[in-house]
Amino acid sequence: IEERTQRQFYSVGFGLGSKVAGQLVPHFHNHYDITVQYHTVDSVHHRVVGVLVEPVSRNTKYDKDAKAPTCDATEPMNLNQDADNEVVYTYSVRWVQSTKSWATRWDQYLQAIDPKIHWFSLINSAVIVIFLSAMLGLILMRALHKDIARYNADDAEDLQEDFGWKLVHGDVFRPPQGYEYLSVVLGSGYQLFWMVLTTLMIALLGFLSPSSRGSLTTAMLLLYIIFGFSAGFNAAHMYHSFGGTSLKRIVVLTTLFVPGTCWALLMLINLCLMAAHSSAAAPAGTLLGVMALWFVISIPLTIAGAYFGYKRKTIDPPVRVNQIPRQIPEQPWYLRPIPSALMGGVLTFGAIFIELYFIMNSIWFHKVYYVFGFLFLVFVILIVTTAEVTVLLTYFHLCSEDYRWHWRSVYTAGASALYVFLYGVFFYFSRLRLASYASLVIYFGWMAIVCLLFFVLTGAIGFVASHLFIRRIYSAIKID
After folding, report:
1. Which residue, 211, 264, 319, 464, is the most exposed by fewest CB within 10 angstroms?
2. Transmembrane region positions (predicted)?
3. What pLDDT is stored for residue 318 in this prediction?
4. Is residue 9 domain-resident?
């Protein structure tokens, strides 16, 4: 039963025991009431459309003289930690005719999420997008259009009054510090973007059935490996456009940054699972298989993409870059790196946090998440919101004569990952409260992986949006 809505839902699997209020020792589930639902096709053929299991704790005693143990015990069974325990497992099977057809057999498992709340989530996100679009439209149609008209004016008096973003035209396209790492973030962001978009499209077409357990994870892993070509291509192209000359360096960084970090965290999680003797620990064969896919497919594709991206024509700036960097005036507190990033991140997070609640509930409470239509719309809203927030703050920075927009756009867009992690902390202490140390490491290890990928994805979206915006406005003015 869902605590908040008091709605019944079917979870994947069942618990080994259950806690009772006022008792320290949980009851051990050793009896299973199995209900098999079948649908009558005709007088001869019947099809199973559902299997439900209700675990029960019964202190059944084993009788050697009886042919089989009975299920008549009513007292629950408690295990003794200081002695050996004899457990008698029993089960009962009941066949129930159902009106559900074979085509609709998954409906009872997929109706766990209230559609009204989902529509509220979309409306909430849409309001944020409309608000940001209105602000962006106001800037582009009034302030920016007025600036361009004044900057292009022939009046000498107007030319002497230039201020704001035109004054930094000779520095705005200057390669930033650490541009090789920025190129890697951009390339990895492209890789994640195409992976997420393609996965959602495949899910929308119905190719990822909930009856095939692990199909979603497998599809995402394979698509991520395939789109390694996109990571290498875009990273090398941007690196070369910034003036980089070491193709080998950018290839090594691209192949190791995101995959290497995620692999290290996964190894830590797997070691904790092995130390806890958990069956969820990945066997050595699976780990070797993933490494083989990485070395045999992903790395060669990344190298090939980097080769073609490096050979592609570089992105030339629309204005000339000054040899001497311009001095940046002191910035107001709200345009400094940390405050501006926090402001931008909270708006992006506000567009997705309700959907994030459903996803977290589905993962940690064994619910079936299959509303990919809503998720696709939320992903589109995430892209639009991230782009608009980053463009707005980039414009404000340029008006304040701060031309260091490259990393700022990544931090501003990616700051929403910090709020995702903070929400994960809140979710852990308010909903989960896992007791063991291994569970703590596993939970926050996975949250760190998700937030890293989310930072790279949204950071790349913010950079691309800001880059297109800046090229557009500086191409529209006349430079002496």
Report:
1. 211
2. 119-141, 192-209, 221-239, 251-276, 288-310, 341-364, 370-398, 410-429, 441-470
3. 85
4. no
The pLDDT score that the predictor gives to residue 373 is 81
pLDDT in tens, 61-111: 777 666 666 777 778 888 887 888 888 888 889 999 988 887 777 766 665
Q: How many domains is the chain partitioned into structurally?
A: 2
| Token couple for 301 | 């594709």
Cβ partners under 8 Å of residue 241, min gap 6: 314, 315
43 found inside a domain: yes
| Cα separation values, 102 from 37, 39, 107, 223, 392, Å | 11, 7, 10, 31, 51
Which domain, by its residues, includes 88?
17-110
Q: 292 and 418 share a domain?
A: yes
pLDDT of residue 160: 47
Residue of 347, 342, 414 whose CA lies nearest to 381:
347
Does one domain contain both 387 and 401?
yes
Residues 277 and 406 in one domain: yes
* Claim to verify: residue 70 and residue 164 sit in the same structural domain: no
In sequence order, which ranges of 227-283 are alpha helices (DSSP H)?
228-241, 247-275
89 with 66, same domain: the answer is yes
Statement to judge: residues 347 and 412 lie in one domain: yes
Rounded Cα distance between 459 and 468, Å, is 14
Residues in the chain predicted with pLDDT less than 70, given as ranges, are 1-9, 22, 64-69, 107-118, 143-144, 147-148, 150-163, 209-213, 366-368, 435, 478-480
Question: Nearest CA to 396 among 144, 122, 204, 66?
Answer: 144
User: Cβ distance 172 to 326 under 8 Å?
Assistant: no
Do the beta carbons of residue 229 and residue 301 sit within 8 Å? yes
Number of Cβ atoms within 10 Å of the Cβ of 41: 11
Q: Tell me what pLDDT residue 102 has.
A: 78
Is 1 among the domain residues? no
Q: Are residues 158 and 212 in the same domain?
A: yes
